[in-house]
Amino acid sequence: MIKTLKVRLYPNEEQTVLLEKHFGGCRFVWNHFLEVRNRYYAEHMNDKKKGLTAFDTMKMLTALKEELTWLNEINSQSLQHSLVELDKAFRQFFRHNASYPTFKSKRDKQYFIIPSGFKAKGNRLIIPKFTEGIKYRDKSSIPNNIKQIVITKDADLYYASIQYESNEELEGGKGIVGLDMGIKHFLTTSDGIEVDPANSYRKFERKIKREQRRLSRKKKGSKNSKKQMVKVQTMHKKIRDARTDFNHKVSTAIAKHYGTVVIENLNIQGMQRNHHLAKSIADQGWYRFKTMLTYKLGWREAKLIEIGRFDPSSRMCSRCGNIKHDLKLSDRIYHCDVCGLTIDRDLNAAINIRNIGLIKVGQGMSEFTPVESAMAGYLNREGISYHSLKQEPQSLQR
Ligand SMILES: [Zn+2]
Q: Which residues contact 202 (CB under 8 A, 6 or more apart)?
């Protein structure tokens, strides 16, 4: 399995300049050849060969470097990788999987990719063009079988994401669980654990707004404005890191404890159109969470089953299948008029999601029996706040 280790880099002044040149050079190559490919297509759309390939642009890059000699300061493999990425973006567009490739700006995420030629020596990471190596924080040792390294900049800090092949065998969990994702609760499991959302954003929101106002009052391009900009970026980074950490902990807990996980399909297109801020932030969080959960389950040869957005998952009674048409969004408790089941609304939905997953894998419905989940202990240890929904129905009416 491919795993990633992210380490902080401590470049010296000279290396910082060269790293910035790499970000800029790769961006330049992307933008330049995006334009070249656009122009070629406009001029040849009626010809047999309508567009350029990655190989065509690589040959053109070699010629371009004779003209723009500053490009030679940059690792040629990283520049070529930009062309491979650009080609991939075009192919995804033609397969209708993505929107048309766009130009990159300095304000976008700063990164470049190193496909080979790296090694770790002492506390230094040696990559092409940085022969003396860049210092890194050696909390964990750098693995041997590195596949690729992505260098990024976040606020004013530099990182290397080291992707490597790991032989580690991970033991998977047992049983099947349904997850109901929500805003009020991050998720509810079908065996009765409700994980609270990470509210790191709200805590910081007012503080960030204040610093952002301060930034807008400073003269653009001035030293103070740049300093304030880094301050704002650093605060955003803190929130991002806290969210990533939260998503990692919760997805690990689930991947460790269950053999099959059932979730509802995320409506990605709806997500992009969604103007409701809280909702769209939550959606992005789930999307990242789902990505993590998918690969962590994959490591353990566990299964992820996605079911369609199934409206009755919240309106259907998980015990008798009756559909409650008058269930309001504000109803936190589900009460079935037919069989008398009284249950937390999200728990009811999670059980339905699990049962639909069971039908999909051909195991049929199974009786809902709440089990003491080992996951609760894990969440506790990791400092994630959660509730157990295994109380008597009466006590659910809070
Ligand atoms: Zn019922």
A: none
65: number of Cβ within 10 Å:
16
Q: How far is CA 92 from CA 86, 88, 98, 101, 112, in A?
A: 10, 6, 6, 9, 20
Rounded Cα distance, 277 and 274, in Å: 8
DSSP bridge partners of 7: 160
Ligand 1 centroid, distance to 321 Cα (angstroms): 6
Taking the centre of ligand 1 as the mean of its atom positions, its distance from the CA of residue 7, in whole angstroms, is 52
pTM of the predicted structure, to 2 decimals: 0.69
* Positive/negative CA dihedral, 26, 29, 35, 36: negative
CA 307 to ligand 1 center in whole angstroms: 22
Beta-sheet strands, E only, within 137-214: 146-154, 157-165, 176-181, 187-189, 193-195
The pLDDT tens digits along the chain (398 residues) read 788 889 999 999 999 999 999 999 999 999 999 999 999 999 998 999 888 999 999 999 999 999 999 999 999 999 999 999 999 999 988 887 778 999 999 888 899 999 999 888 888 999 999 999 999 987 777 888 889 999 999 988 999 999 998 877 777 778 889 999 877 788 999 988 999 887 666 677 788 888 889 988 988 888 998 899 889 888 888 888 888 889 999 999 999 999 899 998 866 555 555 555 555 556 667 888 999 999 999 888 888 998 887 667 888 999 998 999 888 878 889 999 999 999 999 999 999 999 888 887 776 555 444 445 677 888 888 888 888 886 544 444 43
Give the HSE-up count for residue 95: Cα atoms under 13 Å, Cβ half-sphere. 7
Name residues with Cβ closer than 5 Å to ligand 1, which is an ion.
317, 319-320, 322, 336, 338-339, 341
Give me ligand 1 centre to Cα 390, in Å: 18
Residue 171 inside a domain? The answer is: no
Q: 204 and 159 in one domain?
A: no
Question: 100 CB contacts (<8 Å, ≥6 apart)?
Answer: 93
Find the radius of gyration of the CA atoms of the chain: 25
Tell me which of 165, 191, 223 is where a domain ends: 165
Q: Which two tokens stand for residue 347?
A: 């728990």
Say how many Å lie between the CA of residue 192 and the centre of ligand 1: 18
Amino acid at 184: K
Give yes or no: residues 197 and 334 share one domain: yes
How far, in Å, is the centroid of ligand 1 from the Cα of 334? 10
349 with 371, same domain?
A: yes
